[in-house]
Write a structure and sequence with these properties.
heterodimer, A: Formate dehydrogenase/DMSO reductase fold, two-stranded antiparallel ribbon, 13 helices, B: alpha+beta, Alpha-Beta Plaits, 4-stranded mixed sheet, 5 helices, globular
């Protein structure tokens, strides 16, 4: 397709028919039905939000950030992860990883778009944001830097993808490198959004800005396994196997580093019983979302499976990556919720009501519908992309 | 140009909540327990009967601390939170995008969402109402039956608040966070 000087090489058979012409296996049908159901939920969720505003969400004065913030983080972490994995080949020149570059960069675009779609319904005034982000920039705000840098990052990712599609590797490398650097800066700023909260001792500090980069890489590898499993229907050729074995080895190392980081984070949080920090850390460690979600699904299961199978069983890793991604979701959810666990006012402020020990939160149906809608949007965009573009490596 | 602050002789507080009512009335704050600019914290006495620690049963009236180094102002991505000419921490509703970052960053839980404008709202030291009319007191101060609150210009050495802070020992809430609050609790 040509638009002026811009040439977008679409697949010749790209049409509505090719989009609907997928193989009707039970698994494909299940994914298709779920995607449509999620998209319908998105419409219902957004309509409910437009009618009732933030009253449709279970966010409160004490817990102003809810599930949608967690899901936004989930998507943008996925995007940065895809960008890192995609850069291994086309920016850093690792030949084994070249074959996933185009697919991963496309993944980084669709995931961040899904993230933006979700956050648009969490920010109270997204249009005002676009205007005053430019007219009145808050340069001391991590949110300003994060949002602005993510906007620039998306532009670079799209340009990089365009050059990858046109097989212009030199320009793809330049835009890829700048995009990666901007993406890493944006992503660590997202960690900074939490790290700068001096009032929230459990989140305050250097941990999140660095941890976000590490977990982005881990997320990128989990997602790479999933999209490659989808692409090759679990029948990998030798070249793909070599790629996935390499990624599995990197993943094992990264998860080991993550477990090391998490262990020390919790030890330093609990040590000495510092008020507001130690009790929050203990509360977190006793929660199912942390133990079963983050630790077991996000780290231990994938890590143990990869170690026990000695990086040979790449098909298994596709499934452990699905489990890993559920764990990654809990990491994002816990991050947002745990930051707000401790009430800032410990005195009784209303008669006949005791001060709460912990701030409670569970997402509303609207929040859940918009979040699942984001997932549906992401899957749909990615699937349409696989039909529209040749995402395989060209020789 | 002034640098407004408030001193609270909090041990005189009887928890009558007249200040909460006056604030809502004067500034048109929405009804509802969550929607409050100021509040009176109540600490139940520590210990078991009969060994109750009576001194711990205190009332602590509070509100936005109008910090000199306000975290809410630093984290605002659009400068919706700003210092006005009297060093009062204010919110420009036209610029507020309701990202709620300030609500999370404020160590004092002093901010809430005004459902009418769908923006973040907080104490303004009655800048839009009483001060705009040329009065020199805030609604909460004016109504307090036990004269807990003293509002005034911290930069004016002759002001009542400056005199109080010179002559009485005082502390600030969560001062270890480096926020430099302009609310002072007299001991």
């Amino acid at each position: 397709m040509k638009i002026g000087p811009i040439n977008i090489p679409l697949k010749e058979d790209f049409s509505l028919k090719s989009i609907l012409g997928f193989e009707k296996t039970p698994m494909n049908m299940l994914v298709a039905v779920l995607t449509l159901a999620f998209l319908a939920m998105f419409v219902v969720g957004v309509a409910t939000y437009l009618m009732h505003g933030h009253h449709a969400y279970n966010v409160t004065r004490e817990h102003p950030w809810g599930l949608l913030i967690a899901v936004y983080i989930f998507f943008v972490v996925s995007s940065t992860g895809f960008c890192i994995v995609g850069s291994l080949g086309d920016v850093f020149g690792f030949k084994d990883y070249m074959m996933i570059s185009k697919r991963a960069i496309f993944g980084s675009i669709v995931t961040i778009l899904a993230g933006f779609a979700v956050i648009a319904f969490e920010i109270g005034h997204p249009v005002t944001m676009l205007i005053y982000n430019v007219l009145s920039p808050g340069l001391t705000s991590a949110i300003w830097w994060m949002g602005t840098l993510y906007g620039i990052y998306l532009t670079f990712m799209i340009v990089e993808f365009y050059f990858l599609l046109n097989n212009n590797m030199q320009k793809a490398r330049i835009f890829g490198l700048i995009g990666l650097l901007v993406g890493l800066a944006a992503h660590s700023n997202l960690g900074g959004v939490f790290g700068f909260l001096n009032a929230r001792t459990i989140s305050n500090g250097v941990f999140y800005p660095t941890y976000f980069i590490l977990t982005a890489f881990i997320t990128g590898i989990y997602l790479s396994f999933i999209i490659m499993g989808f692409r090759y229907k679990m029948n990998f050729d030798e070249k793909t196997k070599a790629l996935l074995v390499g990624l599995a080895k990197i993943q094992t190392l990264l998860i080991a580093i993550l477990m090391f980081f998490e262990t020390w984070k919790m030890l330093t949080a609990v040590y000495g019983g510092m008020p507001n920090r130690a009790e929050v850390a203990e509360h977190i460690m006793h929660s199912g979302a942390f133990m079963y979600g983050e630790v077991l699904m996000g780290m231990l299961i994938p890590f143990t499976v990869m170690l026990l199978t000695k990086w040979r069983s790449v098909t298994t890793y596709v499934w452990t990556s699905v489990i890993g991604m559920v764990g990654i979701f809990f990491m994002r959810y816990d991050l947002v919720h745990d930051t707000q666990l401790k009430p800032l006012q410990m005195m009784k402020t209303h008669e006949y009501q005791l001060p709460p020990s912990w701030v409670e939160y569970f997402p509303s149906a609207t929040e859940i519908m918009i979040s699942l809608g984001g997932l549906g949007l992401c899957v749909l965009l990615y699937y349409v992309g696989t039909r529209a573009f040749n995402l395989d490596e060209e020789h | 140009m002034a640098r407004y602050g408030m001193a609270l002789d909090y041990k005189n507080c009887i928890n009558c909540k007249a200040c909460e009512v006056a604030c809502k009335e004067e500034n048109g704050v929405e009804l509802g327990a969550e929607k409050h600019r100021i509040w009176v914290g109540a600490n139940n006495p520590d210990g078991q009967w009969p060994l109750l620690d009576i001194a711990s049963a205190a009332f602590l009236p509070s509100q936005c601390q109008h910090c000199d180094d306000a975290p809410c102002q630093e984290v605002c991505p659009t400068h919706a939170t700003y210092y006005d000419e009297n060093n009062v921490v204010r919110v420009d509703a036209d610029k507020c995008i309701l990202c709620s970052y300030c609500m999370n960053a404020c160590p004092y839980d002093a901010r809430y969402v005004d459902d009418r404008t769908m923006t973040v709202d907080k104490c303004t030291f009655c800048s839009d109402t009483r001060l705009a009319r040329g009065e020199t007191t805030t609604a909460c101060q004016n109504t307090c039956p036990t004269k807990v609150r003293t509002f005034g210009d911290l930069d004016d050495p002759e002001s009542e608040i400056s005199e109080l802070l010179r002559t009485r020992e005082h502390f600030s809430l969560k001062s270890h966070l480096g926020t430099n609050p302009k609310l002072f609790y007299l001991t």
